Amino acid sequence: MRACCFLKVLFCIAAKTITKIDAHYTPSEGDTKRTYRIKRFREIMSEGQTMGSSGLKRVEFYHDVVNKAEVRRVCVLSILSNSSALF
Prior knowledge:
- The chain is an all-alpha fold.
- It has one domain.
- It is about 75% helix and about 0% strand.
- It is built from three helices and no strands.
C-alpha cells in the first residue's frame, strides 16, 4: 500500500511540475514541447546537485512526495477500516 501511494503521488506531483514548466514554453526551432519538458524537468531536478548531495529542488520535490503519500496512505487505511466496520 505504501508503494502504491508513493507512486500515485509521485506521478501527480510530477504532472503538476510539468504543467508549471509548460507555462514557460515558447516554441523554438528544433525544440518540441516534449523535448523542452524533459530538458527542464531534468534541469530542475539536478539543479544544485553534487556528487555528494542532492540539490534543494530535488530534496523538496521528494520531501513533498513522501509527506503527501503518507497522508494518502493514512486516509486510505482510515477509509478501509471504516468501510469494513459497516459489514
